[in-house]
Write a structure and sequence with these properties.
The structure holds two protein chains of two kinds. By secondary structure, chain A is mostly helical. Chain A contains five helices and two strands; from the N terminus they run αααββαα. A six-stranded mixed beta sheet of chain B has the order 5-4-1-3-2-13. Chain B has a six-stranded parallel beta sheet with strand order 8-7-6-9-10-11. Chain B is globular, with a radius of gyration of 20 Å. Classes of the chains: A mainly alpha, B alpha/beta. At the A-B interface, helix 1 and helix 2 of A face helix 5 and helix 9 of B.
């Protein structure tokens, strides 16, 4: 996922676009059976909100419908992987230093230093924040606009 | 006029999709080519139901799980089309959803918005069968120990936890979201929840979340997750039983293709998975509202469903693969050996 205007970083979570955020919040609340005020941008989706694998599926569908976008499966991670070209992404299920660097750049909403050496591919989703999906939506909306132009 | 219901299923694998193509002599599909195949051609798989009470039709869509997950909107559209095909033959009182059909499109909500028929996901039936079967295991073991519910954040898991707690059992759940508003013990995760528990319920829609060695020696796992809750074969002495089987009443009707469907879908010859009978019960009772849709699955709906299902002759049963298991056998398990042991181990690893 390349840099896109409007994406949030860990330090700018309070600068979300209210129109986009309202729909993202609705999607999370609907998919996870939560009240809207339980969903905030800094929360981890699995640890804080208790999402399971199928909840991600429901969430993706709700966001696709709300914004008329198509969320690719494994979008965030595969984007980071694609950016790496021929370089090694993981060895025996453990992310390489380069991969961690790419992921951190792809997910600026995650607090700096949280993605550290030894992180396993299977553990990446545990770091996803609500803001991760907000940023993904912003990115896909920008792609959609660019395709129209 | 006998009410009609439909139950929508999908191809379980690319190979299954090809067999569906052969069934209907749709050569493009039989050869593995999906595009260009009319979903109308693939609609009707078989008829089944209770004569005079509710007539059912099993409807198939030709997408396999990978295709459904890749494009949920396409899957919803296919489901809508096959149901509308069935509606051309006459009114439907209920539509049920099998396997991933009950997951994509907001757990049935998107399909329900598009159809003039109540859509129900099967969650109430699954929760009822799982809860009743678990209570049987608890009674057979005579245990006072806690029952651990793994996957308790799912709608079915939460309803089962509520059902068991309401029955007076000590219940542990694997996450704070799962325990919200329930009289249960909240644990940090599945390993903590199952530690020392003689009875474990695998209620998550997808499994592979619990290492077998986390189970207490001699524990009984009543499971509905697919793939199974355990990440590997159960340790010696641990029993894994299917929790969503329903024994068929004597008046269950199915034609030749219905018999084939029972085997092909993995039910076996003498039982069905609980979710299949949810639209039947919905149609038979004339209840206008679904028992389960989206994340909505109330304990009261599970109880309502159970009462109605029992009145129609449906009985949950513990099962090992296709075989029913008497609760008394749970307390005194026979060691599996030879071919039976091999088959049993394979089925448990499904």
């Amino acid at each position: 996922m390349s840099a896109t205007a409007g994406r949030l970083t860990h330090d700018t979570l309070d600068q979300a676009d209210p129109k986009i955020w309202a729909k993202v919040q609705d999607a999370f609340a609907g998919a996870l059976g939560l009240e809207n005020d339980e969903v905030s941008l800094e929360k981890t989706i699995i640890g804080d909100l208790g999402a399971e694998s199928l909840d991600f599926l429901d969430l993706a569908y709700r966001l696709e419908r709300a914004f008329d976008i198509k969320i690719p499966r494994g979008g965030i991670e595969s984007a980071a992987r694609a950016d790496m070209g021929e370089e090694t992404y993981e060895v025996n299920g453990v992310l390489t230093d380069k991969a961690i660097e790419r992921l951190a750049a792809a997910m600026p909403e995650i607090p700096p230093g949280e993605l550290t050496e030894g992180l396993r591919v299977s553990e990446v989703a545990e770091h996803f924040r609500v803001a991760t999906f907000y940023n993904l939506v912003v990115h896909l909306l920008a792609e959609k606009e660019a395709a129209k132009a | 006029m006998t009410p009609r219901f439909a139950f929508v299923v999908h191809a379980l694998s690319p190979a299954h999709r090809r067999v569906m193509g052969l069934r209907w002599a749709t050569m493009r599909l039989a050869l593995g080519m999906d595009e260009g195949v009319s979903p109308w051609k693939m609609g009707r798989i078989c008829d089944l139901g209770l004569p005079g009470i509710a007539d059912g039709v099993i409807l198939g869509i030709t997408l396999d799980p990978e295709q459904m997950l890749a494009d949920q909107e396409r899957a919803v559209l296919r489901m809508e089309r096959v149901v509308r095909l069935a509606l051309e033959e006459g009114p439907l009182a209920a539509v049920g959803l099998g396997s991933l059909c009950a997951v994509v499109g907001g757990r049935g909500e998107a399909l329900a918005e598009r159809l003039p028929v109540p859509v129900t996901t099967g969650g109430a039936a699954t929760a009822w069968a799982l809860a009743v079967n678990t209570l049987r295991v608890v009674e057979a073991l005579g245990t006072a120990g806690p029952v651990a519910v793994v996957g308790a954040s799912s709608p079915v898991g939460r309803a089962v936890a509520a059902y068991l707690a309401d029955a007076g059992l000590g219940v542990r759940v694997d996450g704070k979201r799962a325990g919200k508003g329930l009289a249960v013990e909240v644990c940090e995760g599945p390993e903590e929840a199952v530690a020392g528990a003689p009875v474990v319920v695998g209620a998550g829609p997808t499994g592979g979340v619990l290492a077998p060695e986390a189970l207490a020696p001699g524990a009984v796992l009543v499971d509905v997750a697919l793939p199974a809750t355990l990440t590997g074969p159960p340790p010696p002495g641990v029993q894994v039983l299917a929790g969503e089987a329903i024994a068929l009443p004597p008046n269950w009707a199915r034609g030749g293709w219905g018999h084939a469907y029972h085997l092909f879908a993995g039910y076996g010859p003498t039982q069905v998975f609980a979710c299949v009978i949810e639209p039947l019960v919905l149609a038979a009772t004339g209840r206008g509202a679904p028992y389960a849709l989206g994340r909505k699955l109330e304990l009261s709906a599970v109880r309502d469903f159970g009462r109605a299902a029992e009145a129609l002759g449906f009985v949950p049963r513990l099962a090992e693969g296709w075989r029913g298991i008497e609760p008394s056998r749970v307390a005194q398990p026979r060691p599996a050996s030879g071919l039976r042991g091999l088959v049993s181990a394979r089925l448990q690893r499904r």
